[in-house]
Amino acid sequence: RTGNEGTTVDLWYDGAVVVLWPETAELVMVGREGHKVGLPVLKSVAGDRERIDSARRLAASIMDHWNVQYDYGTPQFAPSETMLKCLQALDDAKLAARFIQEFLPSTCTGSEGKILTSLCRRLGWQPLAPALEGFLAAERGYDRGETWRAALAVWRDLCCHGDANPDRTQACRQVAEGLTDLMTHWDEVDRWGVMGRGGVLEILFESLGAIDRIDLLDGLLDRALADPQRYSLHQVLIPAVKALTPLDAAVENAFKRLHAHCQNQLAERTREPARFPTDWSMEVQVSCRCKACQDLQAFLRDPQQRTWSYRAREDLRQHVSHWLQGTDVQCATERLKSPYTLVCTKTRVSYEKRQQQYESDCDSLRELKALAAAAGLARSSADATPASRASSQARARVRLA
């Protein structure tokens, strides 16, 4: 000992708590701690047939205290796949239906499709069909594009990765009616198209084609082709055409319409290349009538002058430069002597962007024509008429009947 230690303190407690519960309720108590504590225990006991009743009570208790927090649309924990695997081992359709309808909509990440398909195959497609309908319907209660995209990924796996069981096909057809409502809700919430739709059309083509719901696919495709703000030609439609080749015969006519729409749009956009400006005059609206702004307006309209300098204090320089935001005029501050000088230089940025887009559209048009030739879609534009679409829908109705 060095002599620098503190004084020894002894603490005595004269109170204690003893908690007793029946052995049969042990797992239920664990479930009350939530999914973080309960799921590992459930996973360890779900396959024990001697404790199957206790494991089922644990699963119900976990659901009673289910609480998965989201962080900007992404769950901090993704326990739904583990829970579905446990429910498959528990072999209880009632518990499975409750989880699918009440908890899966808010916690799915898009990876649960295969285990959910396996669960439905084990417990029966028809008993779980109402829960699957509730799953899609509950998604309309959220306003996150990530959640809806994950739900569509799960839906695609249900339709495309199952067996040839007629019950599966029938259940998926029944559930598919909720797709239109979900997509309508998505469009209503995302009025300005800020939530990307990349990959959505591919999911709709693959899933609805797999269960032969071409009538729904045609309706959803109509919405997409009529809504360029949400379903961008370059970010959504053209990538979908490329991803869906080679062509699935079940969705041939719908694909032809999509392909023809993209090809026609590109042909219109590439009719003429971007026009090179003949001089340096620019049409920029400057509503202020102060002396500096009048000089700026004269500079912008001058067909020869490329640069203009304005020496003034900072607030006056900012007043002038704010009219040039989003234009082809680049502004820089020259700090050689106070007050500093604002130097404005005209550029060809807009022309260069238009020319780059033109060249990109030409490349895309050539690629789509090559895809059409390889897939035997030489008559895609002719086949994509309203008459052929009506014929396709009629054939779909005959198949469904």
Notes on the protein architecture:
- Helix 2 (35-45) packs antiparallel against helix 3 (52-64) and helix 7 (113-123) runs antiparallel to helix 8.
- The protein has 19 helices and five strands.
- The radius of gyration is 32 Å and the shape is flat.
- 59% of the residues lie in helices and 5% in strands.
- The strands form two sheets. A three-stranded antiparallel β-sheet has the order 3-5-4, with helices on one face. Strands 1-2 form a two-stranded antiparallel ribbon.
- The protein has helices at 26-31, 35-45, 52-64, 80-90, 93-102, 104-107, 113-123, 125-138, 145-160, 166-189, 200-210, 214-225, 233-243, 252-269, 291-301, 314-321, 349-375, 380-383, 386-400; strands spanning 70-71, 74-75, 307-311, 329-334, 341-346.
